[in-house]
Amino acid sequence: MKMKDLKKRISDEILNSGFDVVGFSNIKIDRRTKSNYLNFLRKNYHGEMKWLERHYNKKINPKLIWKDVKTILVVGQNYSPPSNPIKYNNKKGKANISVYASNEDYHVVIKEKLKRIQYWLKNKLKLESKIFVDSSPILEKYFAQKASLGWQGKHTNIVSKKFGSWLFLAEIFLPIEIHETEKEQDNCGTCNKCIDICPTNALLKNNIIDSRRCISYLTIEYKGPIPMSLRKKIGNKVYGCDDCLSICPWNKFSTEAVEKKLISNEKLNDLNFFLNFNKKKFDNYFHNSPVKRIGWIRFLRNVIIASGNSKNKNLVNDLFQHLENENSIIRGSCVWSLSQLLDKKSKNELKDVLLLNEKNQYVLYELNLIG
């Protein structure tokens, strides 16, 4: 089969399987990209995501992932929401969850499609393959740009002329060489809207992000107490942040996602809805959602911080019940949140009571900040 015909046949099968875009890339990574990524790690912009350090060599050499790979096939799945989620920032009493986590887990949805394609490649073309969905050490945004799915915007995510900033990425490794799609050029121009809107100033120059300041990192990857200087800037976000994606002007060309399992349900629950959860309720409610992977404690921490930002004094009683939580991060977060909602007299009374029994140094630190 001619290369052109093979490429078309594979592309057609992928698009017919429900993906929205597909492209091909060789496995080479240029020096500049390797250097930039190493510099990102050296500056500790990755925060506590230490696996990025451990996987550096694999990141810059796909053959260390699969020695037979010669072509990386990148697929994209549109998850554009029905309306701009930036409007939810003003709903202070609501728990704001990122668009991508507002329906079923995209890892599972996309993986099932990839498995069908993998089966087709094996049975129709006699080709072995490896499939990946955001869970392996692959520079997927770099390869997505090489495969012409879009370009890496100033928010560090892929931007597409057709789908804006709403694309899930996945990869298929093939053991044969297929001519790569022409690389997409950067089309951000002088626009800095994503940089300007970032609540915590996490987006730096030259398409670099300081993850340690990113709300998505802080609410999903980071396990410790939310840094004091960033708490109020998190607002009502309890899982992820879409601000830099939502503001992108290229979104005006996007169309709503057609994959029903990935369409945002645009349902925001009240913060007290989650404050009255326990671990069992959390696991049941988010059983098929990516939110489940951060666990009940981290999610509760996020909800408590958002409650402190809500200015809703009706949440005080719901917060009090978590002051006895065995986890010190939950207790400390509650102390801060209540300090934002209570009057001075009530804050000092709370402080006096809690100081009688609290032994944890972190919680004591939070208590001593009450004044």
Provide the fold topology.
Blueprint: H1 3-16, E1 21-25, H2 31-42, H3 51-54, H4 56-59, E2 71-78, E3 96-97, H5 106-124, E4 130-132, H6 140-146, E5 151-152, E6 158-159, E7 167-174, H7 193-197, E8 203-204, E9 208-209, H8 215-221, H9 231-234, E10 237-239, H10 243-246, H11 271-275, H12 279-285, H13 295-309, H14 316-320, H15 328-341, H16 344-355, H17 361-368
Helix pairs in contact: 13-15, 15-17
Describe the overall structure.
- The chain has 371 residues and is an alpha+beta fold.
- It has helices at residues 3-16, 31-42, 51-54, 56-59, 106-124, 140-146, 193-197, 215-221, 231-234, 243-246, 271-275, 279-285, 295-309, 316-320, 328-341, 344-355, 361-368, and strands spanning 21-25, 71-78, 96-97, 130-132, 151-152, 158-159, 167-174, 203-204, 208-209, 237-239.
- The strands form four sheets. The protein has a four-stranded antiparallel β-sheet with strand order 1-2-7-4, with helices on both faces.
- A hairpin with a 3-residue loop joins strand 8 and strand 9.
- Helix 13 (295-309) runs parallel beside helix 15 (328-341) and helix 15 packs parallel to helix 17.
